[in-house]
Design brief:
alpha/beta; Rossmann fold; 8-stranded mixed β-sheet; 8 strands
């Protein structure tokens, strides 16, 4: 299918206003530019929900800031962790606020958005440590937040999808935490830059190969091999016993082939899996309810799967 016209215009505007690659700019400028992107014109109007509260939870090395979204409806409701995107170097609870409000409203889940540590200040495994620690804490303290006790959901987009997938691997045998579903939105599952879609031209995608390469080397540095399952879960020797998964990919996304390959590996391992690829969409489209109706359709699909 052809690239969505509104998204094509978004890519053209980005290219016209990009004078230097991200990696030559101060990281503060990179983060501010990313923060500035998520206006209501892109995300859609902010929806109202019952309660939003910033809560700090314990981490492995340092406390972890989070934001709790409690939807309207019966209480207590089940808990879902959300790990934002941003290539491990940018993004946070503010940038994903509009999406998390809508996610909580549609799924009728309490959403715990995790403001994990970012590279380059905090390289691997600090970010993963935060994701795992937050999941362990949430899995045993949902009632403290006003949520329902019992199995939880982990959800993440892009880099956050990687954290969600790897967290499920890390906690697969943990008797204290029950994860009932993993929702992986255009996830990073392979750091080797080796699948065909990685060569997608910059005029057709929002995150070209060069940006991915910078994200990956900034996050992992020399701390692990790119095939280490802690950054590339697709290389895990055994994927059996993982929670059921929903994977949503996009046609015009350099990560598309990786996501499909991971879905195939999960299916082969006996994991219940639903994989969809959104026609004409680009990376991050689920956050773009203001310009593409497909964003709302995909979020409604998450709600159907979980409920």
């Amino acid at each position: 299918m052809a690239l969505n016209a509104a998204l094509k215009q978004l890519i053209e505007t980005k290219l016209a206003n990009t004078h230097e690659p991200q990696w030559v700019l101060p990281i503060t400028e990179v983060r501010q530019a990313f923060r500035n992107l998520w206006t209501p014109a892109i995300t859609g109007e902010v929806v109202s929900i019952r309660r939003i509260e910033d809560v700090t939870i314990p981490g492995l090395d340092t406390p972890i800031p989070t934001r709790v979204y409690t939807p309207n409806g019966p209480e207590p409701c089940p808990l879902m962790l959300y790990f934002h995107g941003g290539g491990y170097v940018k993004g946070g609870v503010e940038e994903s606020d509009a999406f998390c409000r809508n996610l909580a409203r549609l799924t009728q889940h309490m959403v715990l958005s995790v403001d994990y540590r970012l590279a380059p200040e905090h390289r691997f495994p600090a970010t993963l440590d935060d994701a795992v620690a937050a999941t362990i804490w949430a899995g045993t303290h949902a009632a403290d937040l006003g949520g329902a006790s019992g199995p939880i959901v982990v959800c993440g987009e892009s880099a956050g999808g990687n954290l969600a997938a790897v967290t499920c691997l890390c906690l697969r045998s943990d008797p204290h935490v029950a994860i009932r579903y993993q929702v992986l939105l255009q996830p990073v599952v392979n750091f080797t830059l080796s699948f065909p879609s990685i060569a997608m031209p910059a005029a057709e995608c929002l995150v070209p190969r060069e940006d991915l390469a910078w994200y990956y080397r900034t996050y992992r540095s020399d701390q692990c091999d790119p095939r280490d399952p802690r950054v590339s879960p697709i290389y895990a020797e055994n994927l059996s016993g993982l929670p059921p998964a929903l994977i949503i990919a996009a046609e015009y996304d350099t990560l598309r082939d990786k996501a499909e390959a991971y879905a195939d590996r999960l299916k082969t391992a006996g994991v219940a899996i639903r994989y969809t690829c959104a026609d004409g969409m680009v990376h991050g489209f689920l956050q773009m309810r203001g310009i593409v109706p497909d964003a709302q359709i995909a979020t409604e699909e998450i709600a159907r799967i979980l409920n």
